[in-house]
Amino acid sequence: MNRSERNIIFEIDNKPASEFYHNYFDCLGGVLGGEFPMMIFEDGESVPYIRAVIEVDCGPGNIKAAGDVKEGTTIQFAEAGRDEIIDGARESIETTVKNFTGRPEFLLVLSCAARKNILGTKTSLEYEALKDAAPQIAGFYTYGEIGPLGPGKPSKFHNATMITLLMGV
User: What is the pLDDT of residues 20-58, one digit of tens each?
Assistant: First the structure.
């Protein structure tokens, strides 16, 4: 990505960002629901964080993201499919429970509103994938999540993701 300022991306591969976006996605511009998020590879990291695209402005040719994107960062667009989101939630909680050393008692879920937009009528399936992890579960939708990319890594601001906190004895 060549040029950006805060959460506005102006150029990708020396082209207006909206033109680059339109080459890959059948989108007429306007406000979006997070269907094609960006994977942000910052400072040579091999694991990306996710940034939702919330608007494509064809007039000036820019893209607005749901958070800052550092100029010069490597980005890759992704497609967020409903089944993949549900499968990812299921795999994530299965791994969490497997590595939990105690007895799970409570699960707190923070799920991005962009996921809700993408899941639409299948929103309840995300809950179904998580509900057996602990006797009690609670959560809410957010407009971004803060968490590390892995153990010992610094926290980043994410979009279109889900963070779970499993507690127990």
Answer: 888 877 665 555 666 788 999 988 788 899 998 888 887
* pLDDT for residue 138: 95
Q: Is 137 helix (H, G, I), strand (E, B) or coil?
A: strand
**C-beta neighbour count of 5 within 10 angstroms:** 11
Q: What sign does the CA torsion over 81, 85, 88, 90 have?
A: negative
Tokens of 133: 């992890």
With contact defined as beta carbons under 8 Å apart, do 18 and 56 qualify?
yes
Task: Show the tokens assigned to 38.
Answer: 């960006």
Distance, CA of 163 to CA of 108 (rounded, Å):
8
pTM: 0.79
Cα 160 from Cα 153, distance rounded (Å): 19
110 three-state secondary structure: strand
167 vs 97: CA distance, rounded Å:
10
Q: Return the SS3 of 120.
A: helix
Mention every residue, 6+ apart, whose C-beta is less than 8 A from residue 165: 107, 108, 110
